[in-house]
Amino acid sequence: MSQNLTSTQPGTDAVIEKGRIPITPESYCPFLKFLAHVLGPTTEIVMHAINPASDGYDSSIIFLENSISGRTMDSPATDFIAKVLHDKLYQQQDYVVHYQSTLMNGKKVNSASFFIKNEAGELIGMICINTDVSRFQQLATLEKLSEELLQAFQPELSPAANPLAAATPTENLFIQPEGAIRQVVSELTGSPNPPIADLTRKEKIAIVRRLYEQHFFELKDAVAKTATYLNMSTVSIYKYLQIIKQEDQNMPYR
Q: If pLDDT is split at 50, 70 and 90, which confidence band does 54 have?
């Protein structure tokens, strides 16, 4: 015997047939709040809503608890989200786990992301969980020290070595949109705060190229933010992008 089960949302009179509940990022909020309480203050939980826009994807934070990264509801999308959108990684899998992210202070955290997709398989949101594992790393250091002492005094009791390869950071958690640009400028100039007015045209093109390779310009307002940071016009940034794309076409094996 079949039953036509229905459910109502608190505070509304809407009745939704089972199996027809629309998929929205907001529907995950109660569960994420519960998860944040369970995992505690060393685990940050962030949910981004993602919408296509005329000048790239618009990503906004709609849920944030235990902000170990220092981010706020106004913080921008990360370079990892830009990569997911560009590579369409969400079409190949439902989530990514066990990768490293870097906070603005340089600290590494363990991260995992879940892709929220609509019925058409389009990406409409991402749930990102970032865990500060520094305490566990301290314990691991003590354990390693104890193993070294054991190896020195009683080698027959020492466990077999099993070193873990250091993971390459794949995401940067920026507090402000300019954080991504600032990091690239710092990396390419070798200075944490280089005078923007002293940058040459060649250096600016190199900066735009690095951002382009990180898929930064697929995010909404990325061109305008880059132009403002580099004291340039948006027209100049678009010209640089044309130069970069033309160079890539002429060097297919770059």
A: low
Residue written as token pair 């369409």: 88
* Radius of gyration of the chain, Cα coordinates, nearest whole angstrom: 23
Who's near 70: CB < 8 A, 6+ residues apart?
103, 104, 175
Closest CA to 125 of 46, 33, 66, 71: 46
Judge contact between 145 and 54, C-beta under 8 A.
Answer: no
Q: What is the pTM of this model?
A: 0.60
At CA 35, angle to CA 29 and CA 38, rounded to 5? 150
Long-range contacts of 249-252 (CB under 8 A, 24+ apart): none
- Contact indicator for 217, 202 with CB cutoff of 8 Å: no
Residues 6+ apart with CB under 8 A from 69: 44, 103, 104, 109, 130, 173, 175
**pLDDT above 90 covers what percent of the chain?**
37
Q: How many helices (H) and strands (E) does the chain have?
A: 7, 8
Tokens of 254: 């770059």
What order do you get walking across the sheet with 43-53 strand by strand?
Answer: 56-65, 43-53, 123-131, 108-117, 95-102, 169-172
Pull the structure tokens for residue 216.
């930064």
| For helices 201-213 and 178-189, angle between their N-to-C axes, nearest 10 degrees | 120
Measuring CA to CA, how many Å separate 237 from each of 58, 214, 240? Answer: 20, 16, 5
Judged by DSSP in three states, 219 sits in: strand
What's the pLDDT tens digit per position in 78-128? 888 888 988 899 999 999 998 888 887 778 888 999 999 998 899 999 999
